[in-house]
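User: Can you recover a sequence for this backbone? Please restate the input before giving your answer.

Assistant: Of course. Working from this structure:
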């Protein structure tokens, strides 16, 4: 029997008060994949991430990590189980140095592994190495994005969830973030990335799932999506 996906979302409904936002979301990310979760403004990408991270617990359905259910647990236990969530508002501790921000994120992974250390982070994020003693609040938006990704990796997660990492950043910084995600992918990091920026995703993802109005409307390998004009036009307004 093959191994279960690292992350699986099954038949998940999420409500905010009386309004239903997600309708039976199904999603699976296998080890080593970079899955793009695509959809327009308000499609439900961030809500899907919050459902996975335990911040917006599903009313129906399940979230499984390597086959074991994590839904229903509080966010800190979901994180401890191996889900590394980088929310869209990229929070750093502004009055602390880059290095302190990294150290705060350090913990062993779910099986006790400590693959990610500050030394390793500085190898993969050379930009941060040169800034290790700078206050995080002094970094640019793109540098803060890199720092939040690096800090999350310091927790040695089984999967990295990135909510719109390219949002609001200048094109040259978007390219740098894209290069970084490709490097992580080549290192074997499993990634789920929410994006509206279709071109960015075509360059970094191996697979794509498209959601619209809280429902999955398409899921395939990235090359198949690239060739599917109907889906690109209809849901992604390319
Ligand atoms: N706290 C909340 N209370 C009520 N409705 C909410 C709340 N947060 C989000 N919504 C609604 O849920 C829907 C999905 O929002 P969500 O943030 O998941 O979309 P998104 O795909 O991440 O969009 P974007 O690309 O703009 O980030 C939207 O209609 C939004 O208005
Ligand atoms: Mg969002």
């Amino acid at each position: 029997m093959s191994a279960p996906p690292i992350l699986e979302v099954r038949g998940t409904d999420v409500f905010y008060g009386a309004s239903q936002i997600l309708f039976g979301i199904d999603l699976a990310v296998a080890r080593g994949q970079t899955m793009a979760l695509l959809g327009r403004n308000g499609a439900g990408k961030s809500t899907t991430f919050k459902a996975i991270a335990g911040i917006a617990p599903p009313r129906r359905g399940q979230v499984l990590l390597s086959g074991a259910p994590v839904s229903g647990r509080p966010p800190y236990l979901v994180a401890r189980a191996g889900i590394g969530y980088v929310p869209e508002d990229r929070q750093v501790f502004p009055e602390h140095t880059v290095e302190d921000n990294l150290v705060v994120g350090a913990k062993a992974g779910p099986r006790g592994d400590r693959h990610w250390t500050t030394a390793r982070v500085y190898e993969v994020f050379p930009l941060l190495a040169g800034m290790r003693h700078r206050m995080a609040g002094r970094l640019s938006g793109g540098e803060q994005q890199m720092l939040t990704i690096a800090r999350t990796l310091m927790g040695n997660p089984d999967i990295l969830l990135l909510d719109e990492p390219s949002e609001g950043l200048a094109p040259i910084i978007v390219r740098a973030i894209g290069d970084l995600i490709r490097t992580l992918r080549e290192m074997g990091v499993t990634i789920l990335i929410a994006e509206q920026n279709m071109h960015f995703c075509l360059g970094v993802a191996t697979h794509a799932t498209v959601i619209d109005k809280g429902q999955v409307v398409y899921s395939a390998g990235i090359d198949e999506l690239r060739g599917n004009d109907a889906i690109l036009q209809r849901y992604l307004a390319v």
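That completes the design. Residues 152 and 198 are 24 Å apart (CA to CA).
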